[in-house]
Structures are given as structure tokens and as C-alpha cells.
Sequence to fold (381 residues):
Amino acid sequence: MQRALARVNLAAIERNAARLRRELGPRVSLCAVVKADGYGHGAAPSARAALAGGASWLAVATATEAAELRAAGIGARILVMGALSGEEVPVALAAGADVVAWSERFVATLANAAGERKVCVHVKLDSGMGRLGTRVRSEAIAVAGLVRAEPSLELAGAMTHFATADDDPGFVTEQLARFEPFVAEIRRLEPGLVVHAANSAAVLRQPASHFDLVRCGIALYGLDPMNERAQDWGLEPALELTSYVAAVKAAARGDSAGYGRRFIADRETSLATLPIGYADGIRRGFTNNLDVLIGGRRHPLVGTVSMDNITVEVQSTPAGTSAGGEFPVRVGAKATIIGSDAEQSQSAEDLAARIGTINYEIVCGISGRVPRAYHRDGVPE
Ligand SMILES: Cc1ncc(COP(=O)(O)O)c(C=O)c1O
Fold:
């Protein structure tokens, strides 16, 4: 039994990629976003599964993430979407990654670092996200012109990113209205470049945003970009997070559990301790505020989430133990935090709703201390 374990179904990721591909026209490519260690699912295994399901590009946020995919033997085209410092540029270029530019200065840095390589550059317009990219179309076109003028650089793409594809289609339309004239102008410079804008939510809800390539992260992992119910979109959650019952003990009325005594038993009960805590990604905000599935039933997490442990109230009879003096759950029983147990299930979206965040943050927050185990529909990889 592992103290904490994230089991990842690569067949589900492959099917989610195929599901997303079905939303796309035959000439639109799928780029699998595997930054942040594949949203906590493992970057290289997730990338391979997405490629098997019909993705043809990969995207990451950082130069190191691109280098790690290459070190894992992945040869697919990789786009580094994030800002790169002068120090990071050589790492991205050594990985043979495409990079994003929006300033003339950065184009000069790229040209200096390119050496013998041909570096593929995507120019980013900030059409309303207010993050990376330039808001000024003429500036973006000037950057594109500079890229074309540099023999070591190739103008490979034009891109933008949506701020509200998950909840405000009206603003997506506004962003498209700003992006489209830029696309028309840059295509005149370089007719063959790859135009891309859509994230998962836009792929599912805004066909007009698909252009030549879409960049999908969250939906690949079977999570709902709208943070509600992934099944409604035909997506299959790929990750299950479990721990186990390491200890179980009776508690009398007035006994407390955990730091700060934030749980005090108001009756005789039984408490199980699971060796998983905030250092594994069970955020402290789940204090007295989460269910854990054990033996096909839901049990409340009680008391404060510690670094390495949580406590769950597992009482099933008023006396805290069953008639035979046995505890209602046995030491060694599997405890599911994300996933299903018999009729019960709990999703990353359910966890997110408990603490006012999004499913992205829940899965990305599963720490490196938690081993990942890969399987395909139950068959270990
Ligand atoms: C620039 C960019 N494109 C695409 C994505 C993928 O978004 P999603 O996971 O919502 O599909 C991200 C992720 O945040 C991103 O930063």
C-alpha cells in the first residue's frame, strides 16, 4: 500500500485526445498542453498518450519542460508558450522548441542565440487576456517582419489566448474581432504560418476559434474546462488520488483531532488517520471540509489538514465501534480522495468547489512526493 498514490489512466488521456480531435475539422491540428508536469499527470507519459490519440504538437510553459520532454525521447514539435529570459532561451533552442515572441528586443535575443539553428517563432497578439503578447497590432506585425528578416528565424505561427472561453463567450467574440485583422495581415506576410488561439473551453464551445491548431490542456486529462461535470462533454477523468487507513482509533466525546483542535468529537466516534497531507497536495483549506471514500462510503475529513496526515471520521455506529468491537473501517483499507469507490465518486471539480478554486489547481497541486502509477484501463504500463 502506498501512503499516497496518483494512478493515471493513459488510455483515458488517449481517448480524450481522440474526443477533442472529433471537434476539429480535418485540417486543424491538436496541440497537447503538457506544462506543469502534464497538469500533475506526468508530462512525458501524458504527451505520448495524447500523441497516440491524435495530437500532433505539444506545448509547455518553460524551456526546462521542453528539455525534459526531449530527454524522455519525445520527438514531436514542441511550443514553449511562456516568456523566456536570456538565460532560458538557449535551453529552449537546444530542445529544438518553437518559441513565442512579441517584442523586437526578444527577436534580437533569439537571432543572437540561434547559431546554426533555424528557430521557429510564433508572434503573440494580446487580444484581451492582458498577459503576454503585445496589444498593438502594428507592433506585432513589426515583430513578424523582423522575424522574417532574420535568416536564422522562421515566422512559424501567430497566436493569442482567450481570457473567458470558460464563462463569457461574448468576450471571446471581442477577442476574435481583435485577432482576425492581425491574422489577415500576418498571413499576407507568411501565408503558410500556423494560426492558433483556442484552449479546451474554446474548442468545445467556440468553433470559430479553431483556426489551424488548438492548444488543449485541461480537457485532455478528462477534466471539465467549465469546472462542472467532465462527463457532460464526453471526457474521462484520467487521475485517481488515493491513500490508505494507517491507523484507526476510538474517540470519546470531547476528544480532539489535529493541530489547533479544530475538530472536537461531540459523541463517541472512530477516527482514521490517512498518511497524506498538504505536502502531497491536500490543501489546508480542506480542514473540516472534504469527503474521503473508504469501503464504498463517504466519510468526512475532520480537523486540520497536516503536512503529512489527515484524519477522517469513520464512525458507523453510535458507540464508535460495531457490535463485535471492530472498527468500521480496517487498517490498510484504500481511501480515495479523487476517483470512485463502488457507488461513490469524487472529482477534482468537487474538490475545487470545496475551497473556491478550479480543477486545474487541484491536479497541478498534487506534489512531486506523490508517486504516479501509469496504467491503461487497469492494466499497468
Ligand atoms: C497560452 C495557453 N494556451 C493554452 C492553454 C491550455 O488551456 P486549457 O488547459 O484550458 O485547455 C494554456 C493553459 O493555461 C495556456 O496558458
About this structure: The longest strand covers residues 334-341. Confidence is low (pLDDT under 50) at residues 318-323. The pocket of pyridoxal-5'-phosphate is lined by residues 33, 81, 161, 199-201, 215-219, 225 (CB under 6 Å). DSSP finds eleven helices and 21 strands in the chain.
